[in-house]
Design goal:
Number of helices: 9
Number of strands: 8
Shape: globular
Strand order of the largest sheet: 2-1-3-7-8
Largest sheet: 5 strands, mixed
Strand content: 15-25%
Order of helices and strands: EHEHHEEEEHEHHHHEH
Radius of gyration: 18 Å
Structural class: alpha/beta
Distance between the termini: 30 Å
Length: about 240
Amino acid sequence: MAKSRKFVLVICEGPTDENALYRIFKSFFSPCEIRFHISHGDPLIINREDKNPMARIRAMVQEEKKRYALRDSDIAAVIQITDTDGAFIPDERITETDISNRIIYMEDEIRTKFPDSIISRNRKKRSNVNKLLNHYGINDEIPYRLYYVSRNLEHALYGIDGNLNDSRKGNLADDFSDEFGRDWRRFLAYIEKECSPLGASYEESWALIEKGTASLERHTNLNQMFEEFSFLFYGKL
């Protein structure tokens, strides 16, 4: 009898996240199959603050279960990747400007025409992140982890600031996949060198990104994914 396939579901905000990371994740989680769920926006902001955001994550997982006719036992893990967007900085580091209609992310502050709106957005995201960090599974059967890229994918992985159009994002993601997609260990070495991972554990990485203006700096805790799931899947890194 053929062995049933196992799937790793990855929830992310945009299609270029999948373009950049699919092959890397495929090489690491082999022989599992990788499926990305693109939320087309930040589900941690869209979700109402007074609702448990895990309900929204479970709904996304349910969509993929239906799409691929999966049972819970078919899913090896659910990984979610979120941009930090400077969501953890102190409110006073969000300053008003009339220079641009865009949100301007600096290393130590956010400048915007509508600071009250960004303060509200950040509070909602912080609340939802902290709720999700209390969950280590979608249910008793499916492991779940939330990881971050700061301020966003392009900033964390490529060191590029500013607003990029979709074409530029796509080209960067394709180039990154070409360089690192065949060897997840090269990718891990790269982010440990270039992306200034914080903390020695998953919990500590989140505690440190929430301090001061760290969520505006170039960090990711995707390195913790390799450590945690190496033990889960392989028994060692």
